[in-house]
């Protein structure tokens, strides 16, 4: 059962949101400020955080960035009254996986939450796939949305997984920035591509931290290439 942390300081928004998620079958915890949210994420990381930006103590963007910097790799959905394109771009740059502008319908939020959990946590029929203990290289289980270096699983956010999966499918070939933005974010995306660079940077760090031979190489002015050992 997925665990969801709701970070929202307005009771009239938080209460129906919590009830809706509980009816969906999730275990839900609600906190009203950013400090408590970071404490909870550290103590018992949830599968998904639904995060308001206008918190009374810490801006939600800082909560998002701090959580990612501390190693949280679950799903983060920002919900906010800041509906401008710039705010959406900044939110994704800070490590969010999805962005929902207030006011929003609860049915839409439910659908987005289900999709986000499937992408980032492997809540799907194939989610229980096990790694091959005899495989020492980088292995991507696309059905379960899991990545392994030998027997060690590498925890990736939804966007990091999708970028890596596309690069792996085109191993040793350059994948353009435009294709990655269109396939991983939105074909109608017209915002800053800095969010791609941020995602690539985090992905490189995670691959390097477990010592895999594969490298994500930037091809100046074109895109990125995954090179190294072959995928299983």
TrEMBL record:
Keywords: DNA-binding, Phosphoprotein, Two-component regulatory system. Residues 130-228 form the OmpR/PhoB-type domain. Residues 3-117 form the Response regulatory domain. InterPro entries: CheY-like_superfamily, OmpR/PhoB-type_DNA-bd, Sig_transdc_resp-reg_C-effctor, Sig_transdc_resp-reg_receiver, WalR-like, WH-like_DNA-bd_sf. SUPFAM superfamilies: C-terminal effector domain of the bipartite response regulators, CheY-like. The modification 4-aspartylphosphate is found at residue 52. Residues 130-228 bind DNA. PANTHER family: PHOSPHATE REGULON TRANSCRIPTIONAL REGULATORY PROTEIN PHOB (PTHR48111:SF40), REGULATOR OF RPOS (PTHR48111). This is Response regulator transcription factor. It comes from Nocardioides taihuensis.
């Amino acid at each position: 059962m997925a665990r969801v942390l709701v970070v929202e300081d307005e009771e009239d928004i938080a209460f129906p949101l919590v009830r809706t998620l509980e009816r969906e079958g999730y275990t839900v915890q609600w906190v009203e400020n950013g400090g408590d949210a970071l404490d909870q994420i550290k103590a018992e990381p949830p599968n998904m955080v639904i995060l308001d930006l206008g918190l009374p103590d810490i801006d939600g963007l800082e909560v998002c960035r701090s959580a990612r910097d501390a190693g949280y790799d679950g799903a983060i959905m920002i919900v906010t009254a800041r509906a401008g394109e710039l705010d959406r771009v900044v939110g994704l740059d800070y490590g969010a996986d999805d962005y929902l502008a207030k006011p929003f319908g609860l049915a839409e939020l439910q659908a987005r939450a289900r999709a986000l959990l499937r992408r980032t946590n492997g809540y799907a029929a194939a989610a229980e796939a096990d790694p091959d203990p005899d495989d020492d290289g980088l292995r991507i289980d696309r059905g379960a949305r899991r990545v392994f270096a030998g027997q060690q699983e590498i925890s990736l956010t939804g966007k990091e997984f999708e970028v890596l999966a596309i690069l792996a499918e085109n191993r040793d070939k350059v994948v353009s920035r435009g294709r990655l933005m269109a396939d991983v974010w939105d074909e109608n995306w017209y915002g800053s591509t800095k969010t791609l660079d941020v995602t690539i940077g985090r992905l490189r760090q995670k691959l390097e931290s477990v010592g895999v031979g594969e490298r994500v190489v930037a091809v100046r002015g074109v895109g990125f290439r995954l090179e190294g050992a072959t995928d299983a």
